[in-house]
Write a structure and sequence with these properties.
The chain is an alpha+beta fold and 431 residues long. The protein folds into two domains: 9-170 and 230-318, Bira Bifunctional Protein, Domain 2 (BirA Bifunctional Protein, domain 2, 2-Layer Sandwich); 331-424, Rossmann fold, CATH 3.40.50.800. It has helices at residues 19-35, 49-55, 61-66, 85-94, 139-155, 171-185, 194-202, 213-219, 231-247, 291-294, 309-318, 338-353, 367-376, 387-392, 414-424; strands spanning 39-40, 46-48, 69-71, 77-80, 104-113, 125-134, 161-167, 252-253, 265-273, 281-287, 302-308, 331-335, 358-360, 381-385, 394-399, 405-409. The strands form three sheets. An eight-stranded mixed sheet has the order 1-5-6-11-10-9-7-8, with helices on both faces. The chain has a five-stranded mixed sheet with strand order 13-12-14-15-16, sandwiched between helices. Helix 12 crosses helix 15 (414-424). It is elongated. It starts with 18 loop residues before the first helix and ends in a 7-residue tail after the last helix.
Length: 431
């Protein structure tokens, strides 16, 4: 029985006292996405397994080791989404969104699921903010996407986050690079880990991202992709950098960035910080021009990024960034007697319709306990309502900090007059 009252390993609860933090960063992300012309898309939490196998890549760790896959009662193989891009791309195809005009610009908040060892900044259920853009191959779109990510991080108040960019080329120039990697790493076959040996033929670029210290040291001497870019890919990368320079965005070129998913081409980028340990990538993205074709559609160049919400909050905590506390209860009405409870219900409705938070007792507390509760929740004002107040059709509203009181009529004007009182945050004047 005790087991069902414990959360599953690798998951976390967001409690009511914490949710304002999430709402704060989500609000900023939505505002910035809107400013750049992105509109929200919502896709199912599970998809056909084949979507991720084809879209994410058969040779990736995500597909090979980390996906939550199961068979339905109808015999279909479905998978909880390990990332947001494949589902968004499927929706673009299924609903022919290209007919609504290009580019297609979509943003989302998604929960994702990967079976891996839980640690700080890495959970089995995690949450991402992401954007996707379809139908443009312009390097201006690459730079604009990076500017959007930078804008979000700036508005959140994050510092000491560096932008690293790279180009991993197109299939043509990458084929030459992959062969150069095979030639290089083949010299060290007897030193490579089992995982890297399996990747050597199928996806040698993934060897550059191996977490094994020994393999990582070997990778330091490997050829770099920027030496193998074709003329078109090199021009695209140079133009992207020019746009970033024009926008005043600082960056470092890191030729070892390869990203963990197979669908990436050309521009890739990461925003990285050193303040939360090993899991320091707070945003990753790039271009994936062949994804829609891989899923069975016509060529539709695409790009996007994703930010981990849990990691963003970790960085904000590590850097001491203050998140504004939510507005406290504006008015607490303490009641004495059944008639007062009914009257309070009417007054609260008025106040809430003015957009203010207002509460009263719903658990049967005595008057003293009600006032203690009002203090505990940080109510700005309180009102004690009993038979005398109802008979006189007026009551005193008390400022909980100063103790000053203001008399208000208990009629249809109550909420409007209380709103004025609350906004001025000054008691004791005549209304």
């Amino acid at each position: 029985m005790a087991l069902i009252t414990k959360k599953i390993k690798g998951t976390e609860d967001v409690l009511p006292r914490q949710s304002y933090r999430w709402q704060f960063i989500e609000k900023i992300m939505r505002e910035e996405a809107s400013a750049y012309g992105f509109r929200e898309i919502r896709t199912p939490v599970f998809e056909h397994t084949e979507l991720f196998a084809r879209g994410v890549g058969q040779t990736t760790d995500v597909v090979q080791k980390e996906m939550y896959t199961f068979d339905t009662k109808g015999g279909e193989s479905v998978t909880l989404r390990p990332e947001g891009t494949a589902g968004a791309a499927r929706a673009v195809l299924e609903h022919a969104l290209e007919n609504e005009g290009l580019p297609i610009k979509a943003s989302y908040f998604v929960s994702c699921y990967r079976y891996e060892k839980p640690q700080a900044g890495r959970l089995r259920e995690f949450h991402q903010f992401g954007v996707e853009e379809y139908g443009t191959q312009s390097p201006a779109a690459d730079a604009e996407l990076i500017c959007l990510a930078q804008s979000v991080l700036d508005r959140l108040g994050l510092t000491e986050v560096r932008l690293e960019i790279n180009s991993i080329g197109c299939p043509e120039c990458r084929a030459k690079y992959n062969q150069a990697l095979r030639d290089y790493f083949s010299q060290y076959k007897d030193q490579l880990c089992t995982t890297c040996l399996s990747r050597l033929e199928k996806n040698p670029m993934r060897l550059l991202d191996c977490k094994s210290p020994e393999d990582h040291k070997i990778a330091e001497g490997a050829p770099i992709i920027t030496d193998y870019l074709c003329e078109e890919c090199e021009a695209h990368f140079e133009q992207t950098k020019k746009y970033l320079d024009s926008a005043g965005i600082s960056y470092e070129v890191n030729p070892t960035i390869v990203r963990g998913l197979d669908y990436y081409t050309k521009t890739v980028f990461e925003f990285i910080t050193d303040c939360i340990g090993a899991q320091g990538t707070v945003c990753g993205g790039g271009r994936y021009d062949g994804l829609i074709e891989e899923l069975g559609g016509k060529h539709l160049p695409s790009l996007g990024f994703a930010m981990g919400l849990e990691r963003i909050l970790m960085v904000m905590d590590a850097q001491g960034v203050e998140i504004p506390q939510p507005e406290p209860c504006a008015l607490y009405i303490a009641t004495m007697g059944d008639e007062a409870k009914v009257k309070a219900f009417s007054l609260l409705r008025q106040v809430r319709e003015c957009g203010l938070q207002a509460e009263t007792d719903v658990v049967g507390r005595g008057l003293r306990a009600q006032m203690k509760y009002a203090d505990k929740i940080g109510a700005k004002y309180s009102l004690v309502l009993g038979d005398n107040e109802i008979a006189e059709n007026k009551a005193n509203v008390k400022n909980m900090d100063s103790g000053e009181q203001t008399e208000l009529a208990l009629d249809e004007s109550f909420a409007e007059k209380f709103s004025v009182l609350s906004l001025t945050d000054k008691a004791g004047f005549e209304i």
